[in-house]
Amino acid sequence: MTTATEKISRRVVANNIWFSDAATNAREQLARLAVHGINYEALESEEAIGRAMLDEIETAAREKEGDLTVVIVGGRGGQALHRLLGEKAMTNEIDHLLNRLNIFTQDALAPIEMDNAFSFVRDFERLLGKAFFAKVKSFTSMQTDAQDLESGLITYVETLESRSPIDIFFLGLGPEANAASHLAYIRPGSGATATDIAGMIPISPNILEHHITKFKAGGAIFNEADEAECRNATHILTLGPAAILNAKRIVQSIVDADTAPAKRSSFQRLIEAEISGDQETRARQLDENPGLWVRLHDSVRSLILPNLLTDSK
Residue 241 CB: number of other CB atoms within 10 A? Predict the structure, then answer.
């Protein structure tokens, strides 16, 4: 009998560790994927985008019997949805939906204790609230305090695959140098391929500083030990292109162009890029600009604010 672990292979690319579907050839998989455009929708507010995201979950629930598997996005892109879910969880309005949801996270700082104030999960708990966690079918986060981070990540992947398919993968868009972008934490030059389910990416000091500053600005209640532990984190755990591409639906939300203005050029490059049909060129394009992976999925809804398309302050 073949175990789930035997179906996952390990690759190392310039200190990036990727766990892949061992049964699928990455080059052949990439060649099979068709290229699509991004038909974005500019909505009037973060709240409107949050409502549209909730509509997506409700639509998926109407179209499918049984449980739903949803990967949520951290940062500003998901906050309006999370506040809305938290508010509704305090009533019985969507109990019929919550008790069908299997929620998964998509990236996480590591190693770090799960109760550290700078953990992504703490932000989810703050916005979603106790009522949500009491009612939701399941909530699975990456084990950032596992004694063996690699084994912990494989266990996470196995749990996610046991709840497959992913019905909705909520994504943001992270800006990178030269108008490139990242998805989850698939960064430029990390060597991710179409069969990589999850990975461990070394974290840079500037990314750590940005993370800590963002959490402090967001009102995180922390102590010196929390911050010290966070500054000693070495990696970010992330889902990979295979998890994204295997989702039934991708819903992208980009709402923070005013505070992250580099997202404007990153988004422009995302929607305008001509993705090559040549296999080697395409692989190079995706490694240089991982945000382009969404262009290889046939069911993407991109929700943005108008300020993403302008140079307004």
Answer: 29
Per-residue pLDDT band at 218 (split at 50, 70, 90): low
**Is residue 15, in this structure, part of any structural domain at all?**
no
pLDDT digits over 248-288, tens only?
Answer: 999 999 999 988 899 999 999 999 999 999 999 999 999 99
CATH number of the domain where residue 67 is located: 3.40.50.1360
pLDDT digits (tens, 9 = 90+) for 163-176: 999 999 999 999 99
Structurally, the chain folds into a number of domains equal to 1
Q: HSE of 211 in the Cβ direction (CA atoms, 13 Å)?
A: 26
| Token digits of residue 313 | 């302050």
Closest CA to 303 of 267, 244, 251, 230: 251
Give the domain extent around 91.
Answer: 36-308
Evaluate whether residue 6 is within a structural domain. no
